[in-house]
Specification:
This protein is of the alpha/beta class and 325 residues long. The protein is 49% helix and 11% strand. A five-stranded mixed sheet has the order 3-4-7-8-9, sandwiched between helices. A two-stranded parallel sheet has the order 1-2.
Length: 325
């Protein structure tokens, strides 16, 4: 919808045949974006080959756990000079790979034409044309600027960064903190507790990101604190909704059975905890979220464990000169 407003003529690959039929009949995606008309210049198709044929830009906006399979199916149909923009926010659980790394592995001929998009962007508000800002990141500055120019619009302000690692990790890790924020809100711990949780969550995200090669400054921007604030406080946040449900007594399986949407934070929690262990970074919030999700630890007990941790200085040790970040 945004690409259409930016003057492009996008083709939308719709995975579910039932949803494709509904969109073609009504001009609306009633499953995920009810009440929002799809612009006439958007052509919904059921064939990935048809969607990608001759495309100069392909936006990959599928759940992160299916990116590898979808990219493999896409590969034979991708034009030689096509740019590939990832809008997925997650980490591949099996290999702990970022989405751009998965795409580079599966689409080696396009390795130098892969970029990522992240930031505070609830899909419904973007579809409605409400204003937001986001970041497009690529190792090559010209690629990022070209995408910025192609997709920017008055209600969709785009900034560029070269820190692909930081932008992707910010978009993925904030979902874990959002589950914790939902638990806190569901337990009615108050706004003070939520503010403290977000602040310490940002510190946890930054520690892990820097250890994995990201720049510290990226987490102070739109792809870090901007997306974190939105996802932890917004009523449209799927990950926050999951946290609320867990606090209310639902299990992960019960919540997943009752929704079509994917809460990326679930699989990202496993991957983030494993990565934190691999690089020797403390991730207490992630650890407690994992215990609630996968070990049936009572949510109140998990939040109490965080509050009962040994007291310590707030300052994070400064990175040595020359270190990532």
């Amino acid at each position: 919808m945004h690409a259409a407003r930016a003057g492009l003529a996008p083709r939308l690959w719709v995975y579910e045949p039932e949803l494709l039929a509904l969109i073609l009949e009504t001009g609306e995606n009633a499953w995920f974006l009810p009440g929002v008309r799809i612009p006439p210049s958007v052509r919904a198709v059921g064939s990935l080959a048809e969607a990608a044929a001759g495309a100069e830009l392909v936006v990959v906006a599928v759940p992160s756990h299916v990116v590898r399979r979808v990219a493999g199916d896409l590969a034979p149909h991708l034009a030689a000079g096509a740019r590939v923009l990832s809008a997925a926010k997650g980490i591949e659980e099996a290999r702990f790979a970022r989405v751009s790394e998965v795409l580079a592995e599966v689409l080696p001929a396009h390795r130098d034409r892969i970029a990522v998009l992240s930031g505070p962007t609830f899909a419904l508000e973007v579809a409605q044309g409400r204003p937001t800002a986001a970041v497009v990141a690529a190792a090559e500055a010209g690629l990022a600027r070209g995408l910025q120019q192609a997709l920017a619009a008055p209600a969709f302000r785009l900034y560029t960064r070269s820190d692909v690692t930081g932008v992707e990790l910010g978009g993925a890790l904030k979902n874990v903190i959002a589950i914790a924020a939902g638990i806190s809100d569901g337990l009615d711990l108050g706004m003070n507790a939520r503010a403290a949780l977000l602040t310490r969550g940002l510190a946890e995200m930054t520690r892990l990101g820097v250890a994995l090669g990201a720049r510290r400054s990226t987490f102070a921007g739109l792809a870090g604190i901007g997306d974190l604030i939105l996802t932890c406080t917004g009523a449209l946040s799927r990950n926050r909704k999951l946290g609320l449900a867990l606090a209310g007594g639902s299990t992960l399986a019960e919540w997943q059975a009752g929704t079509r949407s994917v809460a990326e934070g679930v699989l990202t929690t496993r991957a983030a905890l494993a990565l934190a262990g691999k690089v020797g970074v403390s991730a207490p919030i992630t650890a407690e979220v994992a215990a609630v999700l996968f070990e049936e630890k009572p949510p109140r007990e998990a939040l109490t464990a965080l509050l009962s941790r040994e007291v310590r200085p707030e300052e994070e040790p400064d990175a040595p000169i020359g270190a990532p970040g």
